[in-house]
Amino acid sequence: MAPSRATSKRARVADDSSSEDEPIAPKRTRTARTAAAAPAAAAAAAASSSSAADAPAPSKPTRKRAAKKLAAASDSEDEPLAAAPPPAKRGRKAAAVKDEPSSSAASSSSTAAAPKRRGRPPSASSSPASSPAPTTARGKGKAKAKAPAASAAVKKEEAANGDGDGDGGSGSDDDADGEFKWWKQENPLGDGRTKWTTLSHNGVYFPPAYVPHGVQMKYNGKPIKLGPAAEEVATFFAGVVGTTWAENPTFVSNFFEDWTDVIKRTEPATCPIKEFAKCDFTPLVDYLAAEKEKKKAMTKADKDAAKKAKQEIDDKYGWALVDGRKEKVGNFRVEPPGLFRGRGAHPKTGKLKKRLQPEDITINISKDSPVPAAPAGHKWKDVVHENEVTWLASWTENVNGQPKYVFLSAASSWKGMSDFKKFEKARELKKHVARIRREYTAMLKDRETEKRQLATALYFIDKLALRAGNEKGEDEADTVGCCSLRYEHVTLKEGNKVVFDFLGKDSIRYYNEVVVDAQVHKNLKLFKKDHSDGDDLFDRITTTSLNKHLTSLMPGLTAKVFRTYNASFTFQQELESTPADGSVADKELAYNRANRQVAVLCNHQRAVPPTHDAQLGKLKDKIRALKYQRREAKKLMLQLDPKLKKSRKDLTEPESDLDDEWIAEYLESEKVKDKEKLQKKLEKDNAEREAEGKPLLTLKELEDAAAKRAARDPTLEQLEKKVAKLGDQIHAAKTQLVDKDENKTTALSTSKINYIDPRITAAWCRKHDVPIEKMFPRTLREKFKWAMDAEADWEF
DNA sequence: CTTCAGACTTGCCGCGATGCAA
DNA sequence: TTGCATCGCGGCAAGTCTGAAG
Q1: Which of A16, A225, A504, A692 has its CA 20 to 30 A from that of A428?
Q2: From the CA of A226, how many Å to the C1' of B10?
Q3: What is the DSSP string of A501-551?
Q4: Average pLDDT across chain A, whole number
Q5: Do residues A9 and A36 lie in contact, with contact meaning Cβ atoms separated by under 8 Å?
Q6: Gap from A618 CA to C4 C1', in Å?
Q7: Which residues are A405's β-sheet partners?
Q8: CDD domains this protein is in (predicted)?
C-alpha cells in the first residue's frame, strides 16, 4: 500500500467546514489531496477515496476524446430526453441571444466601463518630455557597471519621498508625491491595445556559469569521473534525492534518459553509465549538504557582501522605464537549468531544462532605447519593438516548448490596471447575474443537448466556482475543469446529490458532495447515459463555445469572471458578520473566516504544515495554563472577601478543560522551570558578587526570597485586574487556536491575491478601524495601491 | 471551424528574512 | 545571542483566453 513516505505532507486530513449553508458555497467535505509524485499519487488516491481511485480513473485508461466533435455533427439530436420534448434541429441560436443586440462585434475591446476613447494610454503629456532624459541616465548607469547612479538615486527618492533629479518621470500628470497614480486619471485603462510608447530596460540577468566541483559519484560501486556537463546534470538529480521526486519513476526515467543523452554527447565512449539502478549519487548529495552548511556558516561580512552584490543586480535589472516612468521589473532572472518539476502525473516530469543562452532570448524594447548589451561574446536572439504587449524579454522553454516572459512586477501600473479591469468586470457581472441565472436555469430544459450541456456547465461554474477546463494534451498531466469533466468524475446519488471527484489545476483533488437542482441531476443522468469511463461528460461543448455564449450574455464575460465575482461577492457578504464592537483580534478572525470561505469555495488547498499538531498542542496548553492562573486568582479573591461568593457568580464558575492530572503536570513543569530560572539567576548574581567581593548566595536563599514575594497578598483590585487580563488573554489565544485549526489545509493567500477585490478589504479596514497592515503585507499593499483609498462604505 | 501560438493570470511551494522565546 | 518557528516573497508550473493560421 502507501509507501509511507515521510515526505507525504501532502496528505490532507478530513476537513469538516460544515458551518453553514448558503447558496454560493455549498457544504463540502474534502478529503485528501493527491500527492504530486506519480506513485504516491496513485497510492494516496487509492488509499483515500474508495470511489474514484478504484475505478480506472486517475491515469487515463481508455480515453477517447476527439470523438467529441464527430458525434456532435452526425448523430446530433437523437438523444431521447427524459422529460419529453421532441428532438429538434439545431441552429436556432436566436433563442439564446435574448433581447440585447448581442454586441458581440464590439466586445473584443474589453474595455470595462468607459467606452470613451483616448488617443494615448495614460498620460499624454509626460512621455515625450521625460523619456529622453531617463534613457540617457540609464545608459550612463550601465556604462558605470557598478552602482548605477540613476536607479540608485531614484530608489532613494522613492523611499524618502523626496524630490529626485528629474529621473523617474514625475511628469505633470503625476501626483504631488511623484508617484504615478493611473487610477486617478480620467481614463485609467487607456485604449486597451497599445501598451506603451517608450520602453527601456536593462535586459535579463543570467545565472552564473556552472563551476564543476569534481566530486565523483559512484557507478556500480566505483567512483566515476564525469565532465562538467554530465556532472552538472547528475548534481541536479542529487538535489532531489530524499524527496518524492526521486521516488517518482517517470521523473527518474525522464532524468536518466536526458542525462544519458548528455553523457553520450560529452563523455568518452568508455563511460559505463547504462543503468540507473547502479548509480549512487551519495557523494554528490553529501557535497550539496556540505555546501549548504558552508553557506549557512558564512561570516557576517561574507553575507553582507553577498547581499550587496544581490542589491546591485536588483538595482541594475530591477527597473524599467515605461513612457518615462520607473516601474519595477518582476522576474528579470533567467530561469536556471535544472530538472523540470512537472506536477502531478506529468509525463515530462524530470526532463532536463536546459541552460539558456543570450542567443535564446528575445528583447522587447523601444526603437530609440539603447539595447542592453548581451553578455560578452554573445548576442540576443532578436530585438523587437512590440508595443502591444507588456513583456520585456521572452524565450522558449525546451521541455514543453512553452513561451516564457519577463514581465513587470505585480506592483506595476500594467498589472494594477489589469487587476482593476478584472474586478470591474466582475462587478459588472453583479448587475447581470440575476438575469444570467434565470437564463441558464431555463436553458437546463432546452431541447438541444448542446444547450443543456452549456447550461449545466454554467450552473457548475456559477455555483461551484469550477474553472473552465480547457482540453489538455497527451503530454501533460491529466487534470480537468468544468468542460473537460469526464464520466468517471461525477457520480449521481439519491436525493439529487452529485459527487465530484477529480484532479483539478496542479493536480489538486476536488472532492465535493452537492445537492443540485433537480433538473441538473436529470441532465447529468442523461449526459452519462450510454457512456462510460473516459468519455467526456459534456461532449458537445468546449471552453471556447462556452465563453462565446457568455460573451453574448455580457460583453467580456468569460468563465473565470464567475470565479472572481463569486469570490469577491461571497467575501463581502461573509464580512458582514464582523463584530462591530469586537477587539481587533475578533475582527481579524472574522476577516480570516470570510477569506477562508472563499478559499474553500475556490478549492485552494495547501499541505498541512509539518508542525501543525505540535502547534495546536502548545496553544492548548497555553490556554489551560492561563485558565489555571485565572482560577487561582479568583480563589484568592474569594478568600479575601468571602462576601463576593454571593454577589459575583463569575468568580465561582468552574474553569472548563482543567483536570487535576494536567494541573499537577503543569505545576510540576512550572516548578522545574522556576528552579532553572533561579539557578541561572544564582549563577549570574554570584558571578557579580564574586567580582565585587561580596559573599555568595545559596540557591535556598533565592528560593526563600521568591517564596516571600509570592506570598505577599495582592489587593482585591489587583486581582480583579489580573482576572480581567487573563480573560482577555484566554480569549485571544482561543481565537488564535480556532483560526489556526481551521486554516490547516486551506490556503488563504491565493484568493487574497487573485480573487478578492482589494477595495473590499480597504473599505472594511476603514470601517472597522483595523490597520491595513494587519490584513495586507507590504507586497499586497503595493500591488493594490490603486485600491487603498476605498471609502468605508465602498461596495463591491 | 479546429488547432496552435502567444500572452497573461493563477497557484503551490521552498527558501530566506524576520521575529520571538529560550 | 542563538536556535527556531513563521511569514512573506519569489520561482516557476499550470491554468485561461484570444487571435491567427491551417
Answers
A1: A504
A2: 41
A3: EEE-GGG-EEEEEEE--HHHHHHHHHHHTT--TTSBSS-S--HHHHHHHHH
A4: 78
A5: no
A6: 15
A7: A394
A8: Topo_IB_C, Topoisomer_IB_N
pLDDT tens-digit readout, A219-258: 999 999 999 999 999 999 999 999 999 999 999 999 999 9
Burial class (CB in 10 A: 0-12, 13-18, 19+), A717: exposed
pLDDT at A192: 65
> pLDDT digit string (tens) for A777-792?
999 999 999 999 999 9
Q: Which of residues 430-469 of A touch strand B (CB under 7 A)?
A: 467
Q: With a 7 Å cutoff on the CB, does A506 touch strand C?
A: yes
Query: Which nucleotide across the nucleic acid strands is nearest to A755, CA versus C1'?
Result: B10
Residues in chain A: 796
What does the pLDDT look like over A63-83, one tens digit per residue? 434 333 333 333 333 333 333
Q: State the nearest residue by CA to the C1' of B1.
A: A69
- Give the residue numbers of A annotated as catalytic, written as ranges: 755
A405 touches strand B (CB under 7 A): yes
The residues that bridge with A333 in the sheet, in sequence order, are A205
How distant is C1' of C8 from CA of A756, in Å? 19
Q: pLDDT, tens digit, for every residue of A620-658? A: 887 888 888 888 888 888 888 888 888 888 888 888 878
Nucleotides of B under 7 A from a protein CB: 1-3, 5-14, 16-17
Round to whole Å and give the CA distance between A754 and A785.
15
What's the CA–C1' distance between A735 and B21, in Å?
21
pLDDT for A530 beyond 50: yes
* Cα Rg of chain A, angstroms: 32
Residue A65, CB, less than 7 Å from strand B? no
A611-CA/C4-C1' distance, Å: 12
The answer to whether strand B lies under 7 Å from the CB of residue A413 is no
**Cα gap A511→A382, rounded to integer Å:** 47
pLDDT digits (tens, 9 = 90+) for A446-491: 999 999 999 999 999 999 999 999 999 999 999 999 999 999 999 9
Burial of A301 (0-12, 13-18, 19+ CB in 10 A): exposed
CA of A330: nucleotide with nearest C1':
C10
Is the CB atom of residue A551 positioned under 7 angstroms from any atom of strand C? yes
CA distance A720 to A645: 14
CATH number corresponding to A38-83+445-557: 3.90.15.10
Residue range A151-165: mean pLDDT, rounded: 34
- Which is it for strands A218-219 and A279-280: parallel, antiparallel or unpaired? antiparallel
Q: Where do the structural domains in chain A lie, given as residue ranges? A: 38-83+445-557, 612-743
Nucleotides of C under 7 A from a protein CB: 5-19
Output the pLDDT for position A442.
97
Output the distance from A650 CA to C8 C1' rounded to whole Å.
43
Q: Which amino acid is at A752?
A: K
